[in-house]
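Example record

Each entry pairs one chain with its bound ligand, NAP.
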Amino acid sequence: MVLEKLSLEGKVAIVTGGGTGLGKAICLAMARAGADVVAAARRVELIEETAAEVRELGRRALAIPTDVTDSRQVNQMVERTLAELGKIDILVNNAGIVRGDLPRPIWDISDDDWRLGIDTNLSGAFYCSRAVAPHLVAQKSGKVINVASGWGLRGGRHNYMYCCAKGGVIQLTRSLALSLAGDNVQVNAIAPGLFATAALETPEMREFFADRGRFIPVGRIGSPDEIGPLAVFLASSASDYITAEVFIIDGGGLAGGYAPTGYAPVIPIKED
Ligand SMILES: NC(=O)c1ccc[n+]([C@@H]2O[C@H](COP(=O)([O-])OP(=O)(O)OC[C@H]3O[C@@H](n4cnc5c(N)ncnc54)[C@H](OP(=O)(O)O)[C@@H]3O)[C@@H](O)[C@H]2O)c1
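Structure tokens for the complex follow.
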């Protein structure tokens, strides 16, 4: 009974940013749970790889090249999903600029920098939600999962676009959840802490992130495949009574561990 409720058999899921990192892990977890998957992002070869891996798991898959900052492309992606897979049950707004945006003083941030950060990390989720919501409401069931960040819940020194956009994603989650609650559509956010995605590909970054792991209560950063089960739960009927919530998955970081606010820890860590 419990495991049946977690099944996504017969469901169709769209995952933005599905060609890499957490988005790819979510695509594969959804497919393993039974869903057909649409991976949408800009780099075609990467979403094609995800789609191929989903098909190997026995599910239908589409790779739809999409820039989420362009609402016309988003609308076309949703129309193509409906035309080829027949319906949409789950939307995962995962696309984002993660570490491309180095912290800078506010006076060094141009209008274009600001727009790109906000458009990618917040407007994209809005455009996708706006395009998908009418279909979820019409079928009187659906799930929207927004990938926010611990940065959406705390400030960061010289960190403007990412913090503001991720805070906005949490507020988008709450407003959309309240708006669609009467139509049996649940909307929740996942706020990851520090996860080993593309940024770990160089030895320097590997060392940097290994060091950051010391400041996380569980003693390590997260692995992308650890996000899949939470996404599946929030996409499944096992979570039908949960909406407008933020699920933090960060090894205890926000509770009082790693504090990437731009200031060094003032109390030295005592090694056991
Ligand atoms: N890893 C972490 O520690 C961490 C922590 C907190 C939150 N997050 C959040 O988790 C999500 C995934 O991040 P990740 O760590 O997996 O990093 P990632 O591998 O860099 O994934 C980001 C994805 O977003 C896509 N994307 C970026 N701009 C886009 C656009 N304009 N249109 C469509 N897709 C776009 C990228 O694909 P293309 O470049 O091919 O378009 C890429 O697949 C992000 O929202 C991030 O903010 C990650």
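The radius of gyration is 18 Å.
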